[in-house]
Amino acid sequence: MKILIAIIFSWVCPALWANSFPIPLDIYGPSNPSESLLHILLSRIRVVPFNFFATLIFFFAIIHTFFAPYFSNLAHRFHEDTPKDKMLAALFHFLGEVEVIFGLWIIPLVIVIFCFYGWHGVTSYFSAVSYIEPMFVVVIMAIAASQPVLYFARFCMQKVASIGKNTPCAWWFSIIIIGPLLGSFITEPAAITISAFLLAQQFYQLQPSLIFRYATLGLLFVNISVGGTLTHFAAPPVLMVSGKWHWDTLYMFTHFGIRAIIGIILSTITYWLIFRKEFEHLRQRSLQIVTKQSEVYIPKWVIAIHLFFLAWTIFNIHTPALFIIGFLFFFGFTKITEIYQTSISLKSPILVGFFLAGLVTHGGLQQWWIEPLLGGMNETCLFLGSTILTAFNDNAAITYLSSLVPTISANVALQHAVVFGAVTGGGLTVIANAPNPAGQSILQEYFPQKISPIKLFFSALIPTIILGCCFSYL
Fold first, then answer.
1. Residue 267's pLDDT is what?
2. Is the residue at 408 inside a domain?
3. Peptide bond into 349 cis (omega under 30)
4. In 10 A of CB 268, how many CB atoms?
C-alpha cells in the first residue's frame, strides 16, 4: 500500500522528483548484509517507485525479442490487397524486427519517466546516457563492410585457409578462429562484421543444414565475445573496467587472452567433430557452384586508405566528433573511387546502432537491482550470475555496474569472476554482447525465418560451457 501511495503521489507531483533523476545508487544508502535480496529490492522500490516500472518495461522488451518470429510470420498472413492489409503487414513486420524492439519500448519508458519526473526528467536522463558506442558501431560496421576492407580480410584469411586447400572446412576454421581474435585489435564490431560477411560467402551460401547454421552462428557469437579479451581496449565489457581496475594489454593477455585462445580452439574443434560429416557434403557442393561474379580489381592504395579510416575510427573511439568527421571523409573517398567500390549500405549499421541505443537506454535504469544482486555473491556465484545476467543485458553494462560495487572493486578474484562470466555468456542471446546484432543482421537472410532466440541459445550453450571451464579451471 505504501508503494502504491508513493507511485500515485509521484504521478501527481512529478516536479518533486525531478531533481533526483537520473537516480544515483547512493540515494538508497548502505545495504544491511543481513537483509535478504528481496527485502533490499522492495525497499529500493519503496524509495524510488519508478524502478519497478522501468524494469518491467525492460523485461517486456526482452520478452518481445522472443516473440519477434511470431510477429514476422503474422505479417505474411496479410495479402496486402487493401491499404489496411498493407498497413497491418508493415506494422507486424516492424514489430518482428529484433533491431527495433528496444528502441520501440523507449516510447513507454519516456511516458513513465515523464509521469514520474516531468519533461525535465526525460531530458536529464537522455543527456546523461552515453550513446558513443551505438554511434561507433554504425561507423565501424559501414567501414568494415566496404569492399576494399573485405577484400583485404579475405586475402589474409585465404592464406590460412590455403593450408587446408581452401575447402569449406578450412575457410570455416579460419574465419571462426582468426576473425574473433582480430576483435582484440580492430574491435569486436569490426571483427564480427568481417567474419559474418566472409561466412556468408564461404559457408552459408553452400546451404548447410539448419542446425549447422545455428551452431555456427552461436559459436561465432561466443568466440567474438571472448576473442576481444587479448587487449584492454577492444571488448566493451573489458573497456568499461580496465581503467578503473588498472588492467593493461599485458595483464589482459596473461589473465584472459591465453584462456580465450584455448577456449576458442577447443569449442571450434568440438563443433567440427560434431559436424565433420556435413563438411564433406559442403565440399562437394562447393565444387558444383560456379562463381559468376568476377572480383573487381582493387588497387593497394585504395585498400590502404580504407584501412586508415578503419584505424582512425578505432583510435578515436571515445571522440565521436572525430570519428564522425572521418566517416564523412570516408564517404567522400568512396564516391571518388566508386569504380573500385560497391555501394555502402547503411541500413544494417543504422538498425544495429538503433538496437544498441535502445539497449543502453533501458540498461542504464537497471543498476538498482543488478548492483545488490552481484554485490552479495561469492566468486563462483558471481561468475555464474554474471554469465546468466549477461543473457538478459549487455555484458558491458554488467561489468560497468560491477565496478560500482565496493566489494568487487576491492577483490581481484571477484573482478576476474565477473568479467569471466560477462564475456563467457556474451553469445547466449543477441542482446548479450554489443556486436551480436551486427552479425545477426548480416546473416539473417540465410535462415528461413527470423533467427530463433531459443535455438540460438542452445546453439551457443556448448561453446559457452567450454569457455566457462577454460576461464574457471585453467
1. 96
2. yes
3. no
4. 22
| Full-model pTM | 0.76
Same domain, 244 and 123: no
In a domain, 24, yes or no: no
Domain with 140 in it: 134-473
**Residues 150, 42 share a domain:** no
Helices (H), ranges, 162-257: 168-186, 188-202, 210-227, 236-242, 249-252
Report the pLDDT averaged over residues 256-281.
94
Contacts of 438 (CB under 8 A, 6+ apart): 137, 141, 189, 192, 193, 196, 348, 349, 352
- Residues 56 and 95 occupy one common structural domain: yes
For residue range 283-303, list pLDDT tens digits in order.
Answer: 888 877 655 444 567 899 999
- Which of 91-105, 247-261, 447-461 has the weakest average pLDDT? 91-105
Give residue-wise pLDDT tens across range 79-119: 666 777 788 888 888 887 777 888 899 999 999 999 999 99
Let me know whether 267 and 399 are in one domain: yes
Cell triple for 175:
574465419
The end-to-end CA distance of the chain, in Å, is: 51
Do residues 50 and 10 make contact, with C-beta atoms less than 8 angstroms apart? yes
In a domain, 20, yes or no: no
